[in-house]
Amino acid sequence: MATIDIALAGKKVLVVEEDIDAGFALVQTLKAEPTCQVIFATSALQAFKIIGTTLPDLFLVNAHLTGSDGNSFIKHLRLLSLRERIPIIFLSDDNSLCFPFPRSAVSLQKPFKEQALLTSIGALLKYNHV
């Protein structure tokens, strides 16, 4: 797991997950790398506010955020990812995501193993030279 820890070292990750327990588990997994800064938002609105003040190195986002702000947030993320080359991992309960991903985004189906998440993070950060 040292390779993944190196990938996360000094990185800022924004986790957007409405399920507080699932979000907390993601935060704990990422904080295994002590220098990784993890920001947790429980709604698209909170995430919009965070992005307005600081850009992360990686987004971990529930792909099915509720409400109209969830859909607009996903669209905003796709554009931001393309412009700023910020990788995104969309977390989904199913494999039916019907929107095109930028090259810097992947989908991870829930439930997933911690190692699958860490491997996806490492690969995206390496691929995007973050």
UniProtKB/TrEMBL annotation:
Transmembrane residues, as ranges?
Answer: none
By its UniProt entry, which SMART domains does this protein fall under?
REC
| Highest taxon, organism lineage | Bacteria
The protein's matches in Gene3D superfamilies, at most eight in alphabetical order, are given as: 3.40.50.2300
What PROSITE patterns has UniProt attached to this entry? RESPONSE_REGULATORY (PS50110)
Q: Please report the stretch or stretches of sequence annotated as the Response regulatory domain.
A: 12-125
| InterPro entries on file | CheY-like_superfamily, Sig_transdc_resp-reg_receiver
Q: Name one GO biological process term.
A: phosphorelay signal transduction system
What is the name of the protein in this document? Response regulatory domain-containing protein
Q: What organism, scientifically named, is this protein from?
A: Ktedonospora formicarum
Q: What is the lineage of its organism?
A: Bacteria, Bacillati, Chloroflexota, Ktedonobacteria, Ktedonobacterales
